[in-house]
């Protein structure tokens, strides 16, 4: 047997996903739709947060959502109450969304008819971090009940996100949530991250976050080439 | 736990590269960033499963760990992070998001048994990352 030799190949393992994500990003840009993906752990209140987001943006904008879930369509049913177009992506046993799933789900949607598209990832703070979905911003959600050090436990996903939203603020006092400690953990793994503290349930703090989304959409529309 | 699907992507990528070059693979060398979101042990375990019933069955996965390297604007230097929980220069504590290395998930090389062109000697240096 001849001696083993190394043949250099240098190939990105997630190349296929990245290629599709790039195509999606271009598709979103040309359609003028601003795309936000949501990641969080299970039970952080992602669906309630998204339902409120859709409902409150709807008077002013055309909004829609894709919802990734392992097995049930419960989330899609809940979100449909907002009257916004909602489509479920059932991932089966897969713990994250991939760009190809988003592409398939969008096939029969006319993106030109939308201002905002939200993509709710599977509840998981590990796996979704590796997969680009072509989104404009990735929003990571954590609730006050999860503890201030969540970002330190999942640095990869927090670092890969652009915006952090701390929800269930109505419970902050009850669980003795230390806001400064939470902010320090977030800034430690993702310096300069924009953070919103709010309660989707009571509506407290939602306005600043929704204004931020409006500004992002406006900024995209002015920079997008005609 | 998405290591199995990552392992299957590694197998697909390695097989494609091997077929293109007409080589028989004995090991796949992977560069794995500390910040790639992939757990090494789970990946090694999954690799074996992903190789089953493919031409790569029985091959090894050799993982080269790549630390997170940032660029510090204050020091004007690249520095290796001590912890992925603190994105700041380890020398001057300046926060930074200028990540230069550590997110790799790359099939870097194939260890092959037969003689074909395109070979690189196996003692090639593998330490430094290109700019």
Word description of this protein:
The complex is a heterodimer of chains A (226) and B (131). With 226 residues, chain A is of the alpha/beta class. Chain A has a single domain, classed as P-loop containing nucleotide triphosphate hydrolases (Rossmann fold, 3-Layer(aba) Sandwich), CATH 3.40.50.300. Helix content of chain A is 36%, strand content 21%. A 7-stranded parallel sheet of chain A has the order 4-3-5-2-6-7-8, with helices on both faces. In chain A, strand 7, helix 7 and strand 8 form a beta-alpha-beta unit. In chain A, helix 2 packs parallel to helix 3. The longest helix of chain A has 18 residues. The N and C termini of chain A lie far apart (62 Å). The mean pLDDT of chain A is 92. Chain B is an alpha+beta fold and 131 residues long. Chain B has one domain: hypothetical protein PF0899 fold. Chain B is built from 2 helices and 6 strands, in the order αβαβββββ. In chain B, strands 2-1-6 form a 3-stranded mixed sheet, covered by helices on one side. In chain B, strands 4-3-5 form a 3-stranded antiparallel sheet, with no helix packed on it. In chain B, a hairpin with a 4-residue loop joins strand 3 and strand 4. In chain B, helix 1 crosses helix 2. The longest helix of chain B has 19 residues. At the A-B interface, strand 1, helix 6 and helix 7 of A face helix 1, strand 1 and strand 6 of B. Strand 1 of chain A pairs antiparallel with strand 6 of chain B.
């Amino acid at each position: 047997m001849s001696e083993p030799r190394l043949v250099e190949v240098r190939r990105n393992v997630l190349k296929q996903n990245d290629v599709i994500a790039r195509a999606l990003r271009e598709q979103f840009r040309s359609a003028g739709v601003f795309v936000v993906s949501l990641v969080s752990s299970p039970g952080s209140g992602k669906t309630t947060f998204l339902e409120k987001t859709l409902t409150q943006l709807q008077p002013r904008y055309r909004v829609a959502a894709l919802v990734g879930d392992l097995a049930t369509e419960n989330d899609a049913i809940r979100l449909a109450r907002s009257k916004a177009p909602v489509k479920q992506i059932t991932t089966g046993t897969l713990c994250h969304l991939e760009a190809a799933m988003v592409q398939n789900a969008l096939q029969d949607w006319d993106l030109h008819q939308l201002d905002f598209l939200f993509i709710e990832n599977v509840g998981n703070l590990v796996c979704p971090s590796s997969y680009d979905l072509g989104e404009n911003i990735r929003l990571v959600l954590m609730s006050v009940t999860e503890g201030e050090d969540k970002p330190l436990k999942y640095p990869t996903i927090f670092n890969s996100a652009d915006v952090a939203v701390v929800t269930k603020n109505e419970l902050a006092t009850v669980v003795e949530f230390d806001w400064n400690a939470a902010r320090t953990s977030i800034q430690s793994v993702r310096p300069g991250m924009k953070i919103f503290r709010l309660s989707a349930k009571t509506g407290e703090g939602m306005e600043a976050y929704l204004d931020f989304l409006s500004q992002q959409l406006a900024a995209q529309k002015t920079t997008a080439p005609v | 736990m998405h290591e199995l699907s990552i392992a299957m992507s590694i197998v697909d990528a390695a097989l494609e590269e091997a077929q293109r070059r007409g080589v028989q693979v004995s090991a796949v060398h992977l560069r794995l960033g500390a910040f790639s979101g992939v757990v090494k042990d789970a990946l090694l375990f999954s690799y074996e499963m992903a190789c089953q019933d493919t031409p790569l069955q029985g091959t090894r996965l050799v993982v080269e760990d790549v630390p997170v390297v940032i660029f510090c604007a204050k020091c004007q230097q690249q520095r290796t992070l001590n912890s992925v929980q603190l994105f700041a220069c380890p020398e001057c504590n300046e926060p930074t998001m200028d990540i230069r290395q550590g997110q790799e998930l790359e099939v870097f090389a194939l260890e092959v048994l037969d003689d074909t062109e395109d070979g690189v000697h196996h003692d090639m240096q593998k330490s430094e990352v290109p700019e």
